[in-house]
Specification:
- The chain is 21% helix and 33% strand.
- It contains 2 helices and 4 strands.
- The mean pLDDT is 96.
- The chain binds protoporphyrin IX containing FE.
C-alpha cells in the first residue's frame, strides 16, 4: 500500500529561494531508494507558512529503510528547520 510522508520545513524570511535551490540541486538524490515513488516540494501560498516535502513510497518498509540509513543533516548548515512529519496511507478506492 502506498504511503505518503510529509516533512514540514520552517524557512526564515528571505531564505525561500535558497531552500528551493538546494532542493533543485538534490532532486534526484533519492531516486535510487527501493520503493521510492517520487516527491514534491510544496511552496506555501495560504493557510500555512512552512514548506512541505511530500514523498510517496511503495510501502512503509521502503520508507523506514531509507529513513534509517539517511545521513543526518547538520542543522548549522541548513536554512530550514524540520517541524515534524505527517504520515498517511493512500486509500485504495477500488
Ligand atoms: C525525498 C526527497 C527529499 C529531498 C530531495 C530532500 C532534500 C533535503 C534538502 C536539500 C534539505 C536541506 C534544506 C536546507 O538547507 O534548509 C533537507 C532537509 C531536511 N530533510 Fe529532506 N529531503 C527529502 C525528503 C525528506 C523526508 C521524507 C524527510 C523525513 C524523514 C526529510 C527530512 C529532512 C530533515 C530532518 C531536514 C533538516 C531540516 C533541519 O535543518 O532541521 N527529508 N532535505
Amino acid at each position: 500500500m502506498t504511503v505518503v510522508k510529509i516533512n514540514r520545513l520552517a524557512v526564515p524570511a528571505g531564505q525561500a529561494a535558497e531552500l528551493e535551490k538546494r532542493f533543485a540541486a538534490r532532486k534526484h538524490s533519492v531516486d535510487g531508494a527501493p520503493g521510492f515513488e517520487g516527491f514534491e516540494l510544496l511552496r506555501p501560498v495560504a493557510g500555512e507558512e512552512r514548506y512541505f516535502v511530500l514523498t510517496r513510497w511503495a510501502d512503509e518498509e521502503s520508507f523506514r529503510a531509507w529513513a534509517d540509513q539517511r545521513e543526518a543533516r547538520d542543522p548549522s548548515t541548513t536554512v530550514s528547520r524540520a517541524e515534524g512529519m505527517l504520515e498517511f496511507e493512500v486509500v485504495d478506492l477500488e
